[in-house]
Each structure stands twice: as structure tokens, then as C-alpha cells.
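Hi U.,

Before I forget, here's the chain from the pilot set. I'm dumping it here mostly so it's searchable later in email.
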Amino acid sequence: MATNETALREQIKRDFGFDLPIGSGSASSRDDPLVILASDPRDVALTEMLLLRCFGEVFEKLWRVRARVAMEGRWRHVEQVKVETKRLTSTEIVTEETNHYFDVSASIAGKDAGARDLRQAFMPYYVDPATGILFPYEIGWMHFDKAVENEAAHPGLGLTVSYTALNIKASVYVYSRNIEPFPEMFDLDFVSAEFDAAASDLLGFNSDGRSADDRTLAVSGGGTSYLWQAFEIGAHQSVLALTTARRNYVKLRMTWLAEPLIDEVASEFIDAVFDLASWAPPLRGQD
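Structure:
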């Protein structure tokens, strides 16, 4: 029989497939923090993010981390994570801020204050081994789900990274099709041909899909050029977007239940992903 100390861990493993290093506690107050058993600050940050993702799915809310705060005094072993949430009702959008508390004693034992403060700087991320592009576990309101490396089984098809949020799914594809030479910079003619093929595939795979707008050349807030087009697939809104970075295509497909708030979330996510891809530091041999 599960004890109170193991019940949450077993429930999360059963419902979400994550076996997290957690112990007792509710995370609801600094006097009852949820114990994180990991000793590496990176594992602590990852565990917190995965826990919050589970909480968000259970309560059906959009959420994002606003701050991680190392508490003082007799709560020195506690980390407070401030989370902003948005809940959609039939008449309004309800925005709230909640605090979650984690006992991180295992990660600060025997360490000085500087090392203790450094733990707040860790943001979990996945790195594409081929291009060095970083995919943070949180981009705006969207959260990393999984990465699938396709290259070994399907040369030229690179990597697929999935993100999710409430009623939203996104897939990011990083691939080269083994094209040599691949343009160093964004080339509209080069990108247009690949975009048109991807748009044709999208409509071919979705019998209830239709174009909702013309193909458009856009520029992100960070200055990254890309093509995008909106589609409607049944009751869902969908966007296809494509740019190039690090001698690869970076394609994004995003689908959500049509709603103005989520339209904004999608737009911000597309810009952020393409800027991250463009800002990726060069790998050795690709300087």
C-alpha cells in the first residue's frame, strides 16, 4: 500500500509517465513544501517543471513560471516558485498567481550561499545534438513534451520537438533533407518551395482542412524572417511556419482550439522558437 510520502509520486508515474524524485509534502506553503530528493540543481529545476506541468494539466490551465525565489531564515531549504495561470471560462479569462513551495535540502547541503543562489539560474532545456539549437522546457505558455531524433532511421529528417499547453499542440522540425550546399542565410525562393510542399502535405493529410489566409512573409521581434500561413482544420486553428537556421530548415506546425487568447500564445511561441534557432551558438566545425 502506498504511504502519503509515495502516493503523489506513484500517481504522477501512473497518470503522466514521469518517475520523479519526490518525497512528502503538499507544495502549498513554506511550512509544508514538497520534498525534492535530487541533489543536482539541474535535476531540481527539471523536477519542478515537470511537477508544474502535471499540476497544469490536472487543473486545465495555461501556466508559466514567473520567478524562482530562494527563501531565507528557517526556510532556507525552501524554494518558492511563482506561477502565473490563465483559466478560460465561458465569459472571461481569469488570471491568477499562485506559489508552490519545494524543499530542496538535498541540493544545497554543504554548499555556500553562492552555490545556493546559483540554483535559481537553471532552466531545463533540450539541445539538438546536430545543430546546437536549445529548446527550453518552457517557452512562454508552452512546455516541452518530447524530442525524437529521426536522422538515424530517416537521413535528412533531423529532429522533431513537441510542445504542449492547454488545448494547444506544437511540433518543431529541424532538418536539412541532406541538401548541399544549404544556404547560410534566409533565402525566400529556397524557403518558398519547401513551404509550399509542406502546406500541400498538411491539406492532403486533413480532409477537413482549408486555407484561412494567404502565405505571408513575417519578421519576428528578434528580426528572424519566416513564412507562415493560417489554416482551419475542423474546429481548430492551425499555423504552418518555416524559416532556416544553422544550415537547416526549421518548420513549425501548431494547432489549437480557436480562441483569441490562444491565438496570441501561438504567435508569441512561433517568434520565440525561430529567434532561439537563429541565435543558437555555432558548434565546432560550423563557425
